[in-house]
Amino acid sequence: MSGNGSIRIYFHLPNHALFLFSLTNIPNGCTISKHKFGTERTINIARYNFLNPFTLERKGITLKNRIVIPPMTERMAMEDGTVSRDELAYYQQCAGQAGMFISAVANVNPLGKGFEGELSIDDDKFIPRLSELAATMKTGGSKAIIQIFSAGRMSASSILRGKEPVSASAVAPLRMGAETPRALTEMEIIQTINDFGEATRRAIEAGFDGVEIHGANTYLIQQFFSPHSNRRTDDWGGSIENRLRFPMAVIDKVQAAVDKYASEPFIVGYRLSPEELEEPGITLDDTMQLVDALKQKPLDYLHVSQSNVWRTSIRDKQDDRIVNELIKDRVDGAFPIIVVGSLSTPDQVKKAADDYDLLAIGHEMIREPKWVSKVASGNEGSIRYSINVNELDELNIQPSFLEMIEMVSGGPKGVPLTGK
Ligand SMILES: Cc1cc2nc3c(=O)[nH]c(=O)nc-3n(C[C@H](O)[C@H](O)[C@H](O)COP(=O)(O)O)c2cc1C
User: Which of 22, 47, 205, 265 suits a disulfide with 29, CB 3.0-4.6 Å?
Assistant: First the structure.
């Protein structure tokens, strides 16, 4: 062992070349320097596997680490959906951390709006501020992805300023006070698909590195795939092939916009929810068929939306298989998978990284926006796992955001807050 925490090892390889390896301790792992005949190559080996770079092979885009900030609607946009200064401040504080930083969801057309304070990407007038958002999210080398959707029946006429929510069919979601939507006409379906294409063009013009198609969490794309919300008898409903038609058409339109407008490799990801509790509802078998269909598309990643990375079926309590394992087996390397749900500590993330490609950290990134740098610098002891009410301002959590966190998390435990 030589001084300052480094080790030197000399040995001969079979071809008799003399190598010297020196291992130098760094907070986040070790550096291996390989010397041969006076030349030196340094390889950084991170202590945590998730801190190593990861390449999205299809486009040859390298993410600086395997951490993803998943989409989190903060409801801090202006009334019309323009990115606000508060939002920019919030994104700034998480910037430079994750390999991939996915924005809050943005609606692709006015009827697609699902929340007050939601981002919009339904008009060119939003591009200048979206450009500021993209630039902020890209600070420090993160790839900036914008998530795009239509909320469909998960909206309300109050949010749509008097207009009825729309969906595949006129079936209300199973939640208190939900309105019955009206079924989109065939022309409106085509228009909505085109709107996803236009949203992608705007995302490219605004300087994002990619879009995530939001096919999860019960919004419009999922509503077309679901036998609960899709009771159509035309080509857009009925058989599973017909229920797949809308999601597949959206992907094709997004890809067509990428082919037409992107001058550099542009990431396209898809988010799905593997099951629904409704009867009838999306089953794991349905999801396997969705995965098969997705494998036919040139996607850069699949994002599996769940509340826990190691969750088993929510429909069949007897089934003890891990849903992400089933999906991974079915994907069979066609594209990388992002897993998400209840990852907080470096050890939990490491465990997930042993099995999956990319690891998304939601709630914990709200509590601790500097999570990655703290882990990378060996400062794990200072990671926040709860926040005090006095810290809300410092963390740029406006009251509308706090309400959203509580709504998504089923109460204040989602933060969790101390000092109340
Ligand atoms: C405040 C909040 C807003 C969210 N908004 C979105 C969203 O816009 N789009 C989406 O797909 N998921 C959204 N989610 C779900 C997260 O992306 C993530 O899947 C979920 O929080 C589980 O991960 P976690 O346990 O690490 O927080 C939201 C979650 C939270 C807490």
Answer: 47
In 3-state terms, what secondary structure has residue 213? strand
**What token pair was written down for 169?**
């069919």
Q: Which fold has domain 48-385?
A: TIM Barrel (3.20.20)
Average pLDDT over residues 44-65: 91
Nearest alpha carbon to residue 215 among 309, 333, 297, 326: 297
CA of 404 to the centre of ligand 1 (A): 10
Amino acid 22: pLDDT: 52
| DSSP-derived pairing of the beta strands 54-56 and 67-69 | unpaired
CA–CA dist 260, 31 (Å, integer): 43
Contact 252, 244 (CB under 8 A): no
State yes or no: is 261 an active-site residue: no
Q: What is the dihedral of CA 149, 154, 160, 164, to 10 degrees?
A: 120
CA distances from 51 to 46, 58, 70, 415 (A): 6, 21, 17, 25
Spot the catalytic one: 48, 90, 91, 219.
219
In the reported structure, the alpha carbon of residue 50 is separated from the centroid of ligand 1 by a whole-number distance in angstroms of 20
For residue 358, what pLDDT is reported? 98
Which ligand 1 atom lies nearest to the CA of residue 307?
A: 22
Please give the torsion angle defined by the CA atoms of residues 311, 313, 316 and 321, in that order, rounded to the nearest 10 degrees. -80
Instruction: Say yes or no to pLDDT of 183 above 50.
Output: yes
What's the pLDDT score for residue 45? 53
Ligand 1 centroid from CA 81, angstroms: 19
Position 102 scores a pLDDT of 98
Average pLDDT in the chain: 91
The ligand 1 site (C-beta within 6 Å) comprises 70-73, 104-105, 147, 214, 216-217, 271, 305, 307, 340-343, 361-363, 404-405, 408-409
Please state, in angstroms and rounded to a whole number, the distance separating the CA atoms of residues 301 and 27.
Answer: 31
Ligand 1 centroid to residue 400 C-alpha, Å? 15
- Residue 43 is predicted with a pLDDT of 46
What is the band of 254 on the pLDDT scale with cuts at 50, 70, 90? very high
The tens digit of pLDDT for each residue in 112-140 reads 999 999 999 999 999 999 999 999 999 99
How much of the chain exceeds pLDDT 90, in percent?
Answer: 84
Q: Are 301 and 245 in contact (CB under 8 A)?
A: no
